Amino acid sequence: MNKLISRILRTKYIQQYSSSPALRRVAKYRILKRIARKNNFQIYKKNLIWTQDGDFLEAKAKKITGIPDDRCFVLLEIARRTRSVAGDIAECGARFGRSASFMLTGCGQATEKSLFLFDSFEGLSEPTSADAKDDGEIYWRKGDILAPVDILQENLKDYRQVHVMKGWIPDRFAEVADRSFSLVHIDVDLYQPTLDSLEFFYPRMTKGGFVVCDDYGSENCPGAKRAFDEFFQDKPQTVLHLPTGQCIVAI
Fold it and tell me: I want to staple 139 with a disulfide (CB 3.0 to 4.6 A). Which of 42, 195, 220, 243 is the partner?
């Protein structure tokens, strides 16, 4: 696909606009959009202002591997909107720290909030039958998505308020049982750790806070969606599914 795109961008259709960078950019966008639509892909609209947001570009410049840009912006924006909401931040499933860096950037340099990162750093736990798709397939295996803790620590070394809680979920939750939270990001892919995270953090959420699930809309993570739907079935809050594949719950 990359070779195809490169070849197309060198065609006469594009080159005829070589004297005008603005027109050349429009031409590239149109032809790439046509290719994407034909292959059932999506390309973001070129006029979306979030792609040029100052805080977004600041966090993106760190070049940390992880979740896509659109999901990162959702976390950044929620962190900004909860600056005045009491409570710390927690993330279940930290990997290399990309989502954490966007949340911390959104909080602002003057924040007094702490960020608690819970991760085994040994990959995923053992999936269960609750993680099976409709056809019975389980996409994940124990140990998938392994990320060494030292990489995360290096990526987030410039942030003073980060607490890395290495261990299997929910083993270390008790250490923050006396705290309240304004934002909790759950990205653990599987049913049981997602449910464990909700059961612990929901009673500790402050009014005006948000719970975000990274995996809710992924066909590979039916267990995460199942856990959210089951947990909030008898709660007053609504699980809002986003086109990014995330879901958010406003408290």
Answer: 220
**140 Rama sector, left if φ>0, alpha if ψ -120 to 50, beta otherwise:** beta
Which of 237, 182, 185 is closest to 216 using CA atoms?
185
**CA contacts within 13 A on the Cβ side of 251:** 23
CA distances from 211 to 47, 135, 146 (A): 29, 29, 24
Task: Write down the pLDDT at residue 37.
Answer: 73
Query: What percentage of the chain's residues is helix, strand, coil (to nearest 5)?
Result: 40, 15, 45
DSSP 44-58: --TT-GGGG-HHHHH
Distance between CA atoms of residues 112 and 84, nearest Å: 10
Q: Identify the H or E element spanning 206.
A: strand 205-213
pLDDT, tens digit, 9 for 90 and up, residues 186-199: 999 999 999 999 99
What are the tens digits of pLDDT across the range 134-182? 999 999 999 999 999 999 999 999 998 999 999 999 999 999 999 999 9
